[in-house]
UniProtKB/TrEMBL annotation:
Name of the protein this chain belongs to: Putative transposase
Ranges of compositional bias, category Basic and acidic residues: 275-285
PANTHER family assigned: INACTIVE RECOMBINATION-PROMOTING NUCLEASE-LIKE PROTEIN RPNE-RELATED, PTHR34611
Location of the Transposase (putative) YhgA-like domain: 3-204
Signal peptide: none
Biased composition range(s): Low complexity: 264-274
InterPro entries: DUF4351, Rpn/YhgA-like_nuclease, Transposase_31
Matching Pfam families: DUF4351, Transposase_31
Length: 340
């Protein structure tokens, strides 16, 4: 089965995906000066001094005025956050510059091109690592601080985006993030309808096919492990299959969500309970873990949750939380979650 790294590399090997990533997620004025018609992929396989290859990363370049801007896209699909990612980024950018110098793309006396380092992360835990190398280095006043290196990378933490933020964007990268964060078959159908409408031209057939391959080899098997998708060849076929089996799939997704919620809630609760060291602490820890996970699910499904609902959830017992958890995947509004 194609893993996330390879499938994302295939998706972001299409210029349309990189263009929408820059347009939709780099919210800075200089992006307006980019000439997107000049986007071209650079060889992503280069060798450092210790002969280690970085073949999984993706490098593009684009004209910014008369000069080239390089976009270094690093795909991060680990279960844990890499606290020292900024060190890795500094190393990879340095290797890119070395490669440009060795290939004589840059000559003596010329300045190096700017590089935009992007870390695309889709782990369950939110990213907490520093996004600048300087934050990892102890500051020493008195003049030595000027020697402290500074290099910032752009973090795209997929799970931190709410659906209501992304749904308003006519953006392919946003559609990918919405699929990754989807909680029901209806959510997937909605995004698929948009992709089918956006990828109609013959020139987009390659990207359309890449999305289809990702859906049937990575995304759907992860949600529906008992279903075979070998015969699916197009986005429209994925959409049609969802429409035909939406009730069955909703039941499966609902059960999967309940099991995952219970497991995570129990893990968080037990951890806090052990820290308390008392039975009361364990029981309270279980309830708090379940409550916080339910709040996270609500935010992912409906966006920001007001303080009244937060207070109600944190005051509820475990059985009530379980009941609300069972209703969250089929509710159309946050209010419906709490209906009897």
């Amino acid at each position: 089965m194609m893993d996330h790294d390879h499938s994302y590399k295939a998706l972001f090997s299409h210029a349309e995906m990189v263009a929408d990533l820059l347009r939709g997620f780099v919210r800075e004025e200089w992006v307006n000066e980019l000439d997107f018609s000049t986007l071209e992929k650079v060889s992503g396989s280069y060798i450092s001094d210790d002969l280690r290859e970085r073949e999984d990363d993706i490098i593009w370049r684009i004209r910014w005025g008369k000069d080239w801007l390089y976009v270094y896209l690093l795909l991060e699909f680990q279960s844990t956050v890499d606290w020292f990612m900024a060190v890795r980024i500094m190393t990879y950018v340095g290797l890119l510059y070395q490669d440009l110098i060795r290939s004589e793309s840059i000559h003596k006396g010329e300045q190096l091109p700017p590089v935009l380092p992007v870390v695309l992360y889709n782990g369950d835990n939110r990213w907490q690592a520093p996004v600048d190398i300087s934050e990892l280095i102890i500051p020493i006043p008195g003049g030595l601080e000027r020697y402290r290196p500074q290099l910032h990378y752009l973090l795209l933490d997929e799970g931190s985006y709410h659906d209501h933020e992304l749904a308003t964007l006519r953006n392919l990268t946003a559609a990918l993030f919405r699929l990754e964060n989807s909680r029901t078959p209806e959510d997937v159908q909605q995004v698929l309808q948009a992709l089918i409408a956006w990828l109609q031209s013959p020139q987009q057939s390659g990207l359309r096919r890449t999305f289809t391959v990702w859906l049937k080899r990575v995304f759907l098997p992860g949600r529906m492990p008992k279903v075979r998708f070998d015969e699916i060849q197009d986005l429209q076929e994925v959409h049609s299959m969802l429409a035909e089996r939406v009730k069955e799939w909703t039941k499966d997704w609902k059960q999967q969500g309940i099991e995952e919620g219970l497991q995570k809630g129990l893990q968080q609760g037990l951890q806090q309970g052990r820290q308390e060291g008392r039975q009361e602490g364990r029981e309270e820890g279980l309830q708090q873990g379940e409550a916080e996970f339910l709040l996270r699910l609500l935010e992912r499904r409906f966006g920001p949750i007001n303080e009244t609902i937060r207070t109600r959830i944190r005051a509820a017992d475990s059985q009530t939380l379980l009941t609300w958890g069972e209703q969250i995947l089929t509710a159309q509004t946050v209010e419906e979650v709490f209906e009897a």
